[in-house]
Amino acid sequence: MRINKFISETGFCSRREADKLVDAGKVTINGELAILGSQAELGDDVRISGQPLDAKKGHIYIALNKPIGITCTTERHIPGNIIDFVNHPERIFPIGRLDKDSEGLILLTNDGDIVNQILRSEGKHEKEYIVTVDSVITPSFLRGMSTGVKVLGELTLPCEVTQLSEFVFRIILTEGKNRQIRRMCSAFGYEVRALERVRIMNIRTGDHPVGTWWELTPEDKQELGSLLQYDLQ
User: Is 99 considered catalytic here?
Assistant: First the structure.
């Protein structure tokens, strides 16, 4: 199999991160420097920065109700990184991102394949947010947000937007552009005061306090796998 898939299946990192390691010249296969697209099989001596790659472990799927101030990065030298915050005994990485100044649900795993399944844009997987803005919400704002907004040169996909109170609304996205909700609100002259992600597909924060993490239940994994058409083992 391709070296990036081989590495990701051990839980060391995602395929994308594996490609970066290969490109940086940090991966060898049976003593030979790997290149993008190199093949590796069970029994090969695969090393990263000279260290043997551990054998494949069981997959881990956890959810974190991320507090504001935590950065969704695997770079351990960055203060407030999500890996040190969770402090899981196994090597894991976040699926996607949630802005440092936002709180709420993010999933972490050691399964490099599921990352692509959840993040691929054609999947149109739902993510639900509760947003507080600085000005009174108007019908025209709700209509404009739901029909599409020009963000980073592209029109956002239509989405479901529901007003919850004078300054608070719920929005369900099926895409994930960088700081999308904040940019969408800014296009109408609104500033986001608080942003919380409460759901990714079938996984919800529920009554889990901010700052806590939990393992997905067998029922959660079964339903998520069904939605993704992917076997969460």
Answer: yes
